[in-house]
Amino acid sequence: MGGNPRRDRPVELGRSRFAEDVLEGLSRPRKSLSPKYFYDAAGSRLFERICRLREYYPTRTELALTRKHRVPMARFAGRGCALLEYGTGEGVKTRLMIEALRPSLYTPVDISEDALARAVPRLARAFPRLRIVPVRGDFSRPLEIPPVSDGARRVVYFPGSTIGNLTPDEAYAFLKMTRAQVGARGAMLVGVDLKKDANVLHAAYNDAQGVTAAFNLNLLARINRELGGDFDLRRFVHYAFYEPTAGRIEMHLVSTEKQTVAIGAHRFSFERGESIHTENSYKYSIAEFQALAARAGFRPAKVWTDARRWFSVHGLVNSGSGP
Ligand code: AVI
Question: How far apart are CA 87 and CA 94, in angstroms?
């Protein structure tokens, strides 16, 4: 690599399924849309605002945790590893990890071209000697990733508790897939939001400024912009609550009246009070998450948490055996 700045072009892997997924999701008896479609340019900006909200504790808590424990986290991952991040690497957490880890290769993977286009040049300016190979793709499906030429250990970094947006079955399949991705000597550092007082959770997803509501409604605005929909955003409201049996926050968009919405040639009718389920955000206990990771063939080697035990970062190692 010769120590020169090196930024390869994004690898195009995977195509948008937005239209197909929206039509399929709205045709179900219980309408739903995938949360991965929240993150167009407007949605990504709204999400950044959510992360700064007083009520939204996960970002702040995970950042403090990472700042405090970055040295043992880097020791766990191994300096000079090939770091693959599921997400854009936009945040301060990533910078802390890169500083502590000094990876030989950094690969941010994100579905949003906009988000990568904004994040990668900033990161390249901050770390001019770092080799960055962004991959545009959906990390919930098997990915083709750049090879590691020098035999460096592969480590996946997945902060932010985005794993909580998968169902436990999906999270299991995702962990299994990640284990195959990192290979025999590989490891994973994953941020996981923990179970806690339901009132704290409720406030985090129902902020007083209505930023989370705008983030949720932007999904309909995106359908209007990109797929020619005619959703009237004034006729849907944001609804989020904690469901303790499943251990998850559910986000919905609820139709305030009986109405029909068109998306191109397709028509979707809504009863008054009918909802579109837009997101689940699962919360785990440390033991629950470790058991899930172990089932997927990872050895839960380390866990870091804050004093209130609101958030956790898990260090997982490929156990070499498992499904
Ligand atoms: C990205 N993900 C972990 C966030 C969460 O908390 O589940 C998305 C989010 N939805 C509403 N607020 C934040």
Answer: 10
The pTM of the full predicted model, rounded to 2 decimals, is: 0.91
Q: Which two tokens stand for residue 34?
A: 């995938």
C-alpha of 146 from chain center: 21
Residue nearest to atom 2 of ligand 1 (CA): 162
Q: Could you report the per-residue pLDDT of 121-137, keeping only the tens digit for each?
A: 999 999 999 999 999 98
With a cut of 90, say whether residue 195 has pLDDT above it: yes
Ligand 1 pocket (Cβ < 6 Å) reads: 50, 58, 160-162, 164-165, 205, 212, 279, 281
CA of 44 to the centre of ligand 1 (A): 11
Query: Is the CB of residue 255 less than 8 Å from the CB of residue 249?
Result: no
Q: What is the pLDDT of residues 264-279, one digit of tens each?
A: 999 999 999 999 999 9
- Torsion over CA: 60, 52, 45, 239 (sign): positive
Whole-number mean pLDDT of the chain? Answer: 91
Testing ligand 1's pocket by substitution, the residue of 166, 205, 311 carrying the most ligand atoms inside 8 A of its CB is 205
pLDDT score at 16: 66
- Residues linked to residue 83 through DSSP beta bridges, in sequence order: 106, 155
Which structure tokens are listed for 102?
């000094």
Separation of 151 CA from ligand 1 center, angstroms?
Answer: 35
